[in-house]
Amino acid sequence: MEKATLLFAENGYETTTLRDVAKAVGVTRTALYHYVTSKEELLAMLVEQMSLNLAKALAELRAREDLTPEGKLRQLVDSLVRQRAESPHQFRVHDQTESALSEPLRTRHRQARRDVLAALSGVIEEGVARGEFKPLDPKVAAFSVLGMCNWVAWWYRPGADYDIDTVTRQISQSAIDMVIVADAPRTPADSARTALAVARSSLDALERLLPSEG
Amino acid sequence: MEKATLLFAENGYETTTLRDVAKAVGVTRTALYHYVTSKEELLAMLVEQMSLNLAKALAELRAREDLTPEGKLRQLVDSLVRQRAESPHQFRVHDQTESALSEPLRTRHRQARRDVLAALSGVIEEGVARGEFKPLDPKVAAFSVLGMCNWVAWWYRPGADYDIDTVTRQISQSAIDMVIVADAPRTPADSARTALAVARSSLDALERLLPSEG
């Protein structure tokens, strides 16, 4: 499956044949047919292995009652970054081959993507409601965190410049710094007041910076 | 070029022909040949238009002496997010078709990508050196910011749930919150722009906190 992913990623799903996969693995096409009967089935197995399992794990993490929103966000980001770092080709192939998936897998794959987003934005919403996170738009914030994590599949290469633990720690912390209120916890009522105060003092600063008239 | 980008994105660069492009534009293939002689040339024009111009603009922004690292980061993120939001197909097509580019364009495209990364990590490095940004690894931080911006090409659709100004403000502020030391001294040079941006994003936050009317 690793070889197939690599071939799909490098040469494109459309132009890759099962013969190419057999050759890369070092077996005959007949031997490969023993395990998978079509290229489509191989792709389906890859999707099953990655997207659906990850979505399930993140949804479970979101539902945990022993963690604060900050703790949940840290673990969600941790799982996402590690998954993208471990299977970069798989992730990018899915992005490029969604239209090649046939039903019902295509629908399930899309649902899995929505579940990942729902887990992230749900945790952010919870943090905002508790006054522990800034009053951000939860979905835009979730997409921002997601982009930061997903991008790992584009740039990180194992054994190159960085070890995965360092990368994961920095990205998790960055995600938290993006959303957290520095001196949390605050009551939700206080956040509107804070936003207003910050806006006002920014406008004051702006006024002072204007050239004086006349 | 928009039509070509859309076709490349939807059906894949390999399987799209100039005939398809002509049909989508509503002209004959002969008429299209008047402007471009091959599919490769069309792709080259797309790359030229997007990647190289953006890389140049960001490099210039990085070199400006009238802006603090915070001001530069805000404007870099602003440019990136707007570009990704305006040409999502273009961005994703480039990601998928780099191997289809022929030399010397392929080398130039890669260089442009490196230049974008260098502009971002250079600004972060400058902020760290001045003690205004947290002591992060500048490259990992740059990739994180880049992922956040690039991902806009995957999820943002004009005219849907969000307007681009709100999205851009939140993402710029998130990028800054990721890196900035809370009590950093600010130089007055670009703080008018900063004050305005902070005020606006505080007002956005305030709006979201209001109970919905009706």
How would you describe this structure to a colleague?
The structure is a homodimer of 214-residue chains. With 214 residues, chain A is an all-alpha fold. Chain A contains eleven helices and no strands. Chain A has helices at 2-11, 18-25, 29-33, 39-63, 69-86, 88-97, 105-129, 138-150, 152-155, 164-179, 188-209. At the A-B interface, helix 8, helix 9, helix 10 and helix 11 of A face helix 8, helix 9, helix 10 and helix 11 of B.
Kindly summarize this structure in a few lines.
Chain A is mostly helical and 214 residues long.
**Structural class label of chain A:** mainly alpha
User: What is the radius of gyration of chain A computed over CA atoms, rounded to a whole number of angstroms?
Assistant: 22 Å
Task: Count up the helices of chain A.
Answer: 11
User: Biggest sheet of chain A: strands, sense, closure?
Assistant: none
Q: In the residues of chain A, how many domains can be counted?
A: 1
CATH superfamily membership of chain A: Tetracycline Repressor, domain 2
CATH architecture of chain A: Orthogonal Bundle
Question: What oligomeric state is this?
Answer: homodimer
Distance N to C terminus of chain A: 74 Å
Percentage of residues assigned to helices of chain A: over 70%
From the spread of the alpha carbons, the general shape of chain A counts as elongated
pLDDT < 50 runs, ≥5 residues of chain A = 184-189
Q: What is the class of chain A in the CATH system?
A: Mainly Alpha
